[in-house]
Amino acid sequence: MKKILSTIITITILVGFCVLSGNTSFASTDNFKNNELGYEKIETSEFYQNITTADLKNGAYLFHNNGKAIKSDYFKEGKSEGNHLVAVTISKDSRANIETAYFINKDSISEETLARMILERELYTVLGTEKPKDDEYDDPVVKRYSWTWYWKDLELAHLTTSINAFKKTGNIIFNDKQNYHWWNIKSASLLNSSYAKDIMNQNTEMDVSKDEQKLVEYEPIYSDEGTITFKLGGIGIFPISISEHPGKLSIKNMSSAYSSYGKWEFYERSSLTNEYKTEPSVQVISKDSNVYLDLSHSTLLNYYDYENYSWNAEDFKTGNIVIKLGKK
């Protein structure tokens, strides 16, 4: 953390956050050269999630290591599944600070590829930051994650997930015990294939099995073929209505309220597709004012192996992302 803050101060004094020493490939992309996204670029080999907007003051920031992997605390220990952090952007809208982490399943990519990746993924606004009910919830905590998977130097597919967490204003009583906090955690994911011909399925798990936390409700709650309409209503308190499930995907529900995790497999029964849109969500009560979520996805991709002249169906995983939702 001190290293990051020291880096920020140094950059401020020397170059006013404009162009970092040796950062030439970003400048070769017009959008970055002209700073059209408005990010202050900070080069660092480490990034930790306890950085706060107070440390950064105002503005929008891009942390990067010129396309190389960045040491971080995003993954549960030993659960990265070969993925590496290569960039983090932090920005703000009228309701929330938005942190987006970018991962790849290789050690590095070119700076130009990284620049293009960020420019493209910035368009993936899969969840807004509106409150479920204006008077009952605090402003949301928003986290976004983007994974890109490669085979050789070919981009197979990319997945972007938004997590919006809304905490009920004030404390609640649960099972005759006071001072619990109620959280609605909404997710929305967009999975697109590139070189991969087909997406065979997508698995998503939202695990909240931590001491002093309890999964109260999860959605969707059943398996069905075709379109699913569902409503997150918990135990009759603070319901959130969610629109018709996008993508018309079939769903296999493997969630467990007893073990405090939501888990689903999404798949297209009638034909294969190159895009998945999913919106699983959970409701959690927590003794702590914060709530902790382990998020993971996997997808089975079908692509052509031009070296062996054969089709491959291979599982690609995001790793387990450890997310703290609440005030830092």
Label this structure with key terms.
single chain, 328 residues, mainly beta, Immunoglobulin-like, 2 domains, eleven-stranded mixed sheet, six-stranded antiparallel sheet, disordered N terminus
Question: Quick summary of this structure?
Answer:
The chain is mostly beta strands and 328 residues long.
Relative helix content: 10-25%
In the CATH scheme, the class of the largest domain would be Mainly Beta
C-alpha end-to-end distance: 13 Å
CATH architecture descriptor text of the largest domain? Sandwich
The total number of structural domains is 2
User: Radius of gyration over alpha carbons?
Assistant: 20 Å
Tally of DSSP helical segments: 4
DSSP summary, beta strand count: 21
Largest sheet composition: 11 strands, mixed
